[in-house]
Write a structure and sequence with these properties.
The structure is a single chain. The chain has two domains: 4-77, 3-Layer(aba) Sandwich (Rossmann fold); 86-145, Winged helix-like DNA-binding domain superfamily/Winged helix DNA-binding domain (Arc Repressor Mutant, subunit A, Orthogonal Bundle). Strand 2 (41-42), helix 3 and strand 3 form a beta-alpha-beta unit. Helix 7 (114-128) crosses helix 8. The chain is mainly α. Helix content is 56%, strand content 4%.
Length: 151
């Protein structure tokens, strides 16, 4: 599984270091998040030696590489996506919101007040243009934030 905190740490410590990732998934959310953390490219699992060599040269020469399994349109959307406007804590809330837990239980798990939970909820309603918890769950499913098997 991709560890976003590790990518963030690497880019903070060594900002010029190029990162080429072999993602376990191709969800738009995951790809966009990694791009915005500073990942320079993606290569499909099981790629041939020749493809890996081309990917490394492309990242070195052009600063980016994406395999055919990652649509180029995702790269174009990366800088303007609504997903980038969601804070890590809102993302944590969104993930917990996709369970049968009440807001009080979610607040306890996140170690924050119910009022803060309501603030996250209202902020996500505005950012995602939804009007209910069900809308948040549908968004999480469609964007790949929450895999269908988890629900």
């Amino acid at each position: 599984m991709i560890n976003y905190a590790t990518i963030r740490h690497i880019k903070q410590e060594w900002p010029d270091l190029k990162i080429l990732v072999i993602p376990e998934f191709n969800s738009e959310f995951g790809v966009i998040k990694m791009i915005n953390l500073g990942v320079n490219g993606f290569i499909a699992k099981g790629s041939k030696q020749y493809d890996i060599k081309n990917a490394l040269h492309s990242v070195f020469d052009k600063d980016y590489y994406y395999s055919a399994s990652i649509p180029e349109v995702v790269f174009r959307k990366a800088k303007s996506s609504v997903l980038l406007k969601i804070t890590p804590r809102e993302m944590e809330f969104l993930s917990l919101c996709c369970t049968d837990q009440g807001y009080k239980t979610i607040a306890d798990k996140m170690k924050i007040s119910v009022r803060t939970i309501e603030s996250y909820r209202n902020s996500l309603y505005d950012k995602l243009r939804v009007k209910s918890r069900m809308g948040l769950m549908i968004f999480a499913l469609k964007s790949g934030i929450i895999p269908p098997a988890r629900l």
